[in-house]
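User: These chains co-purify. Model them together.
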Amino acid sequence: MKNGKKTFLTSGQKRKIRNNMTGYAFVLPNLIGYTVFVFIPVIFSFILSVMSWDGSQRPMQFVGLQNFADIFGDRIFRGTLLHTISYALMTVIPTLILALLLAVLLNNKLKGVAVFRTAFYFPYIASIVAVGAVWNMLFQPDFGPVNEILKAVGIADPPRWVVDKDWAMVAVAIVSVWKYMGYYMIVYLAALQGISSSLYEAASIDGANGRQKLWHITVPMLTPTTFFVLIMLTIQCFKVFDLVYVMTGGGPGNATKTLVNYIYEKAFTSWEFGPASAGAIVLFVIVLAITLIQFSGERKWFRDM
Amino acid sequence: MRKRRLTAALMAGIMVCGMLTACQSKTVQDQQGGEEETAQTSDAGETSGSNSGAPEGKQVLSVTTWDNESSPQFQAVIDAYEEENPDVEIKVIDTSADEYNNSLGISLSAAQPDPDVIWVKDMGSMLQMADKEQLLPIDDFIEEDNLDLSIYKGAAEQLMYNGKSYSLPYRNDWYVLYYNKDLFDAAEVEYPSNDMTWEEYYDLAAKMTSGEGSSKVYGSHNHTWQALVTNWAVQDGKHTVVEKDYSFMKPWYEQGLALQDGGYIQDYSTLKTANIHYSSVFKNQQCAMMPMGTWFIATMMQSQEEGETDFNWGIATIPHSKDTEAGYTVGALTPIAISAFTDQPDLAWDFVKFASSEKAAEILAKQGVFTGIPSETAFQTIAAAERFPEGESNVEALNYTHYSFDRPLDPQIEEIRTVLNEVHEMIMIHSYSVDEGIAELTKRVGEIKGWN
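Assistant: Joint model of the two components:
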């Protein structure tokens, strides 16, 4: 075998193989981890989504698309889809606008600007469990600081936040905006550094004021970044789980139950891995669709540039 | 060239080895940690030192527990078993109570020989495991050993499922009414009696409420569990929490809301948002009474023992409705079972048999824990314990004449409980009226059971 091989390969090919082997050796540790903990489970969940299985040793039953029919027929699942979308709507745009405004404000050469940048970035690296617990106390309906302030400014009947089915999602969205705007502020700051100052100088010569410069130079120049931020935020919103789990546990009732909460519950309370995986595939398709939009968008921006 | 190839191979090898050893050293550490724990807690100290290195000839039995450190309920029996069987080492796999059913379910899906013995946290999860064929039926063992099930006074039969026994009763807990004697003394109100109707209890709760703001003392305390309302609705044994029509719950929800809205118990939303544990409310003397399971006796005794609290407390029979008599209570069993995948079923059975024996019952009684063997001696042992409240009425309060399960043995009960909890929350925060909540319950439970 070995001798036979030798005659077929030129020394150049051999060197190439050898070089490749070195490369593979370097990526191997990561590749093993990825295959075992990500790739195989993902494939497995695709298989599970057309099966009926309760986690036991009994063989799985092939049920075709029945799981998908079941979850779309389940009003709790449809509810979680709506909750997830409403959470995305309440989170994405405010985060985007606040991140942009913060970035523009903190792009100046102020004294102590680094302190402010750090302060706004800080929530992003804080533990989500701690953040959720603290905000829950701030939102406490009867004597929490948020409602005390609202009462002080004349709102006699402030919302009951996480224990009000109409306001619970708003409360979660507010915390999410607060937590993530610092991160996207940094993304915008990086992009702002890339805008040539000659543009602003030219505009100044033409007599443009600050707002005109923001609106006609900064915002258009940041469009690719805005697009990127928009996509990343939307994907992040569809995957939301931890913040909801910590703050409301999906409640009150199921008012804040999101797609991932539903998947979790189906899998680990009811032990119905089929419908749970079908839910995960729905999530996968949504995220994939958003990502494809981003890819095509990115190509467009780069072609334009 | 050759050198380079050698280096590459070597590096890959090192990396692989590194990964393997990293994993290995972790398991070794875990084992050592586990052994240290058992060594510390076992009073004889036999398992420490020389044995931990090489357990020669020692059989290792693994058991699953939850919150093992916060309560003596498992460790006391484990220690006693190890003392009696020096050639057996018990490996404890402990998980937090919240994650217990999830983590156990996943590890059983892997069908590994560990764990051997399973303490079952909810009877509902026992049915799920039995349905998934993850529990070993123990009928043959019972027959072989001629085990006398009559000592459990019917509890063993109640745990049977589809005509098979999967477990023996380990703990038995039922609801009683705890009260703070000092607060009653200060208010010059008589202690709750062992024969109270719910109406009398509501009046007493109103009477015992005093103060304002942060120093307010509430007459009673309902934790956020749906059980603190629905239990009383099933107390008379005529209904369960799985029904085609939930209108029987209406008066109980109205009363629960009346207590809350009158300010006699803490607001549900406050408890929920601040994540307040019921034990801290009672221990901090923020409530005069509290309906809670008998498991709280051991907690209170431990707390008095450690000097965490030093007020006088008492136990009364749980109130009853007008058309039943005193002594009707609601409770649940904690079964102990064997994994279907165990590699040492005989040893596991031996442990299960020991843990649910009269001997273990005696050991547990000393800790203030009630077992599946209800006996006068066990009651006397608990009553004689140093930190058990003084007075005959407290012992009397432990007796019951009628016992309903807080939830029926229904294979879908875990799913139904999610619904019960969600609707309970919506009613308690006034998002649903009682009628809306009952309609929702009837509808969604019907959907799960396939009734409509």
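The beta strands of chain A are 51-52, 61-62.
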